[in-house]
Amino acid sequence: MSYFLFKFLVIGSAGSGKSCLLHQFIENKFKQDSSHTIGVEFGSRVVMVAGKTVKLQIWDTAGQERFRSVTRSYYRGAAGALLVYDITSRETYNALTNWLTDARTLASPNIVIILCGNKKDLEADREVTFLEASRFAQENELMFLETSALTGENVEEAFLKCARTILNKIESGELDPERMGSGIQYGDTTVRQLRQSPQAGSAQGRDQCNC
Amino acid sequence: NCVVKLQKVISQLCSEHHMAKCVKLLEPALHSHAQTHTGLKMFCVFLSSPSYDWMRKLTQRKKQAKKGKASLLFDHLEPMELAEHLTFLEYKSIRRISFTDYQSYVIHGCLVDNPTLERSIALFNGVSQWVQLMVLSKLTPQHRAEVITKYINVAQKLLQLQNFNTLMAVVGGLSHSSISRLKETHSHLAPEVTKIWNEMTELVSSNGNYCAYRKAFTDSEGFKIPILGVHLKDLIAVHVVFPDWVDDNKVNIVKMQQLYFTFNELVSLQSAVAQVEPNMDLIYLLTLSLDLYYTEDEIYELSLLREPRNPKSLPTSPTTPNKPMAPLDWASGVTTKPDPNVVNKHIRKVVDSVFRNYDHDHDGYISQEDFESIAANFPFLDSFCVLDKDQDGLISKDEMMAYFLRANPLLQCKMGPGFIHNFTEMTYLKPTFCEHCAGFVCIRQPLRNMFIGNTGTLLFIVISENPQQGTK
């Protein structure tokens, strides 16, 4: 079967519910790993996006937020990122700029980022309004959703929206999976051939860009 | 019936943080019923392990008799010596972290009232920053390449000592964008050094959920320090992914087992024995160097100064040093006038330590030669003649004291926070007074406060878990 493989990151301040979000998305796809030597690997799921099979390999940074140089090592070669804050904690919202700077400087410049205001279910404790966050998202050219890892609301959508945008960018030639560190791999060669023939023109155009 | 009750309690232990209290109450019961499940058994082993409370108490240092020639810090220390001392610091900090500290971190997903873990993370980040600053303090690409090479050698030794946590911090520092962007510097690295470097980054890379590191860690025997972040990540993952309960009110044994393995690896460090015989003076100076409070932006700015973005507009040749560092615009927040007596006291301590380590002939004066080694270890120090007020070619203790006192307000604007209150979490056992202004420290439970003084050049930390024992 031919498919794409996208590397995704889940970033944001400690306690914003990154692991829960990821777990909600992976759900039962997670295989219990009894061997403690390889640790707990629970980060991938295959989804269908716009008629294409995409395997999302998702890297969770939970637990390591404060170890600056550890967290940074994740960024290399990430195609997409979920930038998570907690709508009931202004502190996590205020830290977004830092996370965003890291993502933009450390990951590929084309990284597709979706902002997720998590814990949507805790409406009563809300500290960050939808409007404020969506303005921030707009200013920083991010997609935006409010999610709830508890009820599952918008969790699937967040990942799929991100994946769909990446696919669109590949199709429009804006993103080149051939480039090192794009965070995108082919499951096998058929996708590559399919993509290469009609897109040859735009690929040439991109070669002139030195970025 | 008993077993069901027991299961409930254990699951409570996992989800609440009244751990210590519950453990005491339950230990006998747990032991009598533990035979049924291996998971429970393991948990019991865990609960019954000694608390190692004594390790978390502040230790008072004995003054060590000076042995032979003073060792200097970075420039004159052999990589192995440096690695050993870093390992000592790491071990000392990491073994203070108790099971309850780890547990609280996992449950909250962040640091809440967790000063020991916080301090350990600060040390980790301190090492990363120190590595970057030491590299960036050199003016020419060759010199910077030499420093990088030295750190790569240190990393090798850290691996040899099986101190994976500091290894990660050093590799993390060297692969930080402020260093990795220095193309010219990297062109001066010898191919064999680059090869070792690649091996090191492979080893601690997050690929395959850190599979290279996990393999190396499992394979190593004896004293070893794990990469804290990786294992904390595992704990959080297990905690989130597995339910506490499985069908019909049964404790999830698989979860208990997973938690046990990881916790055990972390907590077993408390009973490990460090093989290092440290030189406490060195440890003290190393601690000074590691307590850097720079922001990443400031470090990156320094990196841009060393090798500007567009080399065409600002040509740099390998033989011409880049322009010396211009004062950066360090936005250092609010400044407060500190109590001169307190400032004096702390500057005296730092100056004493400097003289102990750098005044080679013990004549109470720093010669020009001695000074160069100080300057190499503590970037941003003014030139010799600035410190040598009476121009006699020697710096006396008083001159150095005077310099720091004078430099303090001046340096404050360019060297980051000076003697301003710089609050970081700290736990005190008793109500206490601010070290800088002698004001009473406002307290909420638990008592906390920490003051970081900064001369701008020699950074020192004034902390004390027990104010009665004075500062360290």
From TrEMBL, chain A:
<keyword id="KW-0472">Membrane</keyword>
<keyword id="KW-0813">Transport</keyword>
<dbReference type="InterPro" id="IPR041819">
    <property type="entry name" value="Rab4"/>
</dbReference>
<keyword id="KW-0479">Metal-binding</keyword>
<keyword id="KW-0378">Hydrolase</keyword>
<comment type="similarity">
    <text>Belongs to the small GTPase superfamily. Rab family.</text>
</comment>
<keyword id="KW-0460">Magnesium</keyword>
<dbReference type="GO" id="GO:0003925">
    <property type="term" value="F:G protein activity"/>
</dbReference>
<keyword id="KW-0342">GTP-binding</keyword>
<dbReference type="InterPro" id="IPR001806">
    <property type="entry name" value="Small_GTPase"/>
</dbReference>
<comment type="function">
    <text>The small GTPases Rab are key regulators of intracellular membrane trafficking, from the formation of transport vesicles to their fusion with membranes. Rabs cycle between an inactive GDP-bound form and an active GTP-bound form that is able to recruit to membranes different sets of downstream effectors directly responsible for vesicle formation, movement, tethering and fusion.</text>
</comment>
<dbReference type="GO" id="GO:0031901">
    <property type="term" value="C:early endosome membrane"/>
</dbReference>
<dbReference type="InterPro" id="IPR027417">
    <property type="entry name" value="P-loop_NTPase"/>
</dbReference>
<dbReference type="GO" id="GO:0005525">
    <property type="term" value="F:GTP binding"/>
</dbReference>
<keyword id="KW-0967">Endosome</keyword>
<keyword id="KW-0653">Protein transport</keyword>
<dbReference type="GO" id="GO:0005886">
    <property type="term" value="C:plasma membrane"/>
</dbReference>
<dbReference type="InterPro" id="IPR005225">
    <property type="entry name" value="Small_GTP-bd"/>
</dbReference>
<keyword id="KW-0449">Lipoprotein</keyword>
<keyword id="KW-0636">Prenylation</keyword>
<dbReference type="InterPro" id="IPR050209">
    <property type="entry name" value="Rab_GTPases_membrane_traffic"/>
</dbReference>
<protein>
    <recommendedName>
        <fullName>Ras-related protein Rab-4</fullName>
    </recommendedName>
</protein>
TrEMBL record, chain B:
<comment type="similarity">
    <text>Belongs to the RASGRP family.</text>
</comment>
<dbReference type="InterPro" id="IPR011992">
    <property type="entry name" value="EF-hand-dom_pair"/>
</dbReference>
<dbReference type="InterPro" id="IPR036964">
    <property type="entry name" value="RASGEF_cat_dom_sf"/>
</dbReference>
<keyword id="KW-0862">Zinc</keyword>
<dbReference type="GO" id="GO:0008270">
    <property type="term" value="F:zinc ion binding"/>
</dbReference>
<dbReference type="GO" id="GO:0007265">
    <property type="term" value="P:Ras protein signal transduction"/>
</dbReference>
<dbReference type="Pfam" id="PF00617">
    <property type="entry name" value="RasGEF"/>
</dbReference>
<keyword id="KW-0863">Zinc-finger</keyword>
<dbReference type="GO" id="GO:0005886">
    <property type="term" value="C:plasma membrane"/>
</dbReference>
<dbReference type="Pfam" id="PF13202">
    <property type="entry name" value="EF-hand_5"/>
</dbReference>
<dbReference type="InterPro" id="IPR001895">
    <property type="entry name" value="RASGEF_cat_dom"/>
</dbReference>
<feature type="domain" description="EF-hand">
    <location>
        <begin position="384"/>
        <end position="410"/>
    </location>
</feature>
<dbReference type="InterPro" id="IPR002048">
    <property type="entry name" value="EF_hand_dom"/>
</dbReference>
<feature type="domain" description="EF-hand">
    <location>
        <begin position="346"/>
        <end position="381"/>
    </location>
</feature>
<dbReference type="InterPro" id="IPR023578">
    <property type="entry name" value="Ras_GEF_dom_sf"/>
</dbReference>
<protein>
    <submittedName>
        <fullName>RAS guanyl releasing protein 3 (calcium and DAG-regulated)</fullName>
    </submittedName>
</protein>
<keyword id="KW-0106">Calcium</keyword>
<dbReference type="GO" id="GO:0005085">
    <property type="term" value="F:guanyl-nucleotide exchange factor activity"/>
</dbReference>
<dbReference type="InterPro" id="IPR018247">
    <property type="entry name" value="EF_Hand_1_Ca_BS"/>
</dbReference>
<keyword id="KW-0344">Guanine-nucleotide releasing factor</keyword>
<feature type="domain" description="Ras-GEF">
    <location>
        <begin position="78"/>
        <end position="309"/>
    </location>
</feature>
<dbReference type="GO" id="GO:0005509">
    <property type="term" value="F:calcium ion binding"/>
</dbReference>
